[in-house]
Amino acid sequence: MTRARMPRPNEVAAASRDPRLRRAFEEREDGQAWRVRGVCRSVDPEVFFPAPNEATDAAVALCRTCDVQGACLAWALDVGDCHGVWGGTTARERRAMLVAWRAGMRESGTAFDALAAASALVGPISATRELVASA
Prior knowledge:
Elements: H1 9-16, H2 19-27, H3 57-64, H4 69-79, H5 91-106, H6 110-122, H7 124-134
Helix pairs in contact: 1-5, 1-7, 2-4, 4-5, 6-7
């Protein structure tokens, strides 16, 4: 089994601007009632957990049609799930989003705007390094 690498600063910067991450932050729910409304309930779970060499396109396409995509992604980021497709994101995308998510949770949502502003002033790599260092 291969070990997942840490996301690069430019990947974290891009993930912090991803609209799916903002949606997850806005739609996160305390309970898990969102699970019964998911499109994934009518599909074989194996679709969302492909083998490492298989494409995730089918699962991501299904997630894009789902009403609870934001809550699903929020759940995956909260628990740190790095396997499969959750909320329309692959494990690699979520690893980068997780850095911004944890900073955003700590600062009650201001990290996303702060990173965007810092990126504009000092460049995405420097801003991301500062955000990662504070996480």
